[in-house]
Amino acid sequence: MLNWMIDVSLRNRVLVLLAAVGLAVAGAVAVLHLDIDAFPDTTPIQVQINTTASALGPEEVEQQITFPIEQVLCGLPRLQILRSVSKFGLSQVVVTFEDGTDIYFARQLVNERLGSVVLPPGIERPSLGPVATGLGKVYHYIVSLKGRGTRGEGRGARGEETTTRILPLHGPRPSPLIPLLKT
Question: Rounded to whole angstroms, how far apart are CA atoms 108 and 129?
């Protein structure tokens, strides 16, 4: 069998070369249209709902805000997990959907359901968190001293000055900050 393949290939050199070039071109076209991500996003589809009530403690936030929001969101199509955190003045509900759900469709479903939630007077309406994944939650920044001090002074500058400029003045803190010190 192998001798026959070699014999046919040697007799039909032009045909073999054309087939090899055709396969190479088809491979190049396939590589150009291949959807490859350097860091594949393996995080689930999540929609975050934040509600602030600065005058309420954790138990009151749970009873008056978090529980009604959870009740309204139960039964959403393709809902996988419903989690919540109630802190002083903040209710955060995270809705996780099945893989393959479009993030904007999921946000639309959640937003429609939030329109029917009944909250106590004086509590602002729940708001959706940004479209973000687990890979986009950490903010890196560099503090460069440029010969103006030691590493210890750089840590002080990072802690007192830089962080207060990056973080918002009110509301829940965004992503974790990871400083990189460069001397």
Answer: 13
Distance CA 47, CA 111 (A): 10
Distances (CA, A) of 6 to 17, 19, 65, 84, 175: 14, 15, 77, 68, 63
Cα dihedral 144, 146, 149, 153 in deg (nearest 10) = -10
pLDDT at 17: 95
Helix crossing, 2-11 with 13-32: angle to 10°?
90
**Closest C-alpha among 44, 51, 179, 27 to residue 127:** 51
**Which strand (E) or helix (H) includes residue 163?**
helix 163-166
- Regions in the chain scoring below 50 on pLDDT: 169, 174-183
6-9's contacts with Cβ under 8 Å and 24+ in sequence apart are none
19: amino acid identity, one letter? A
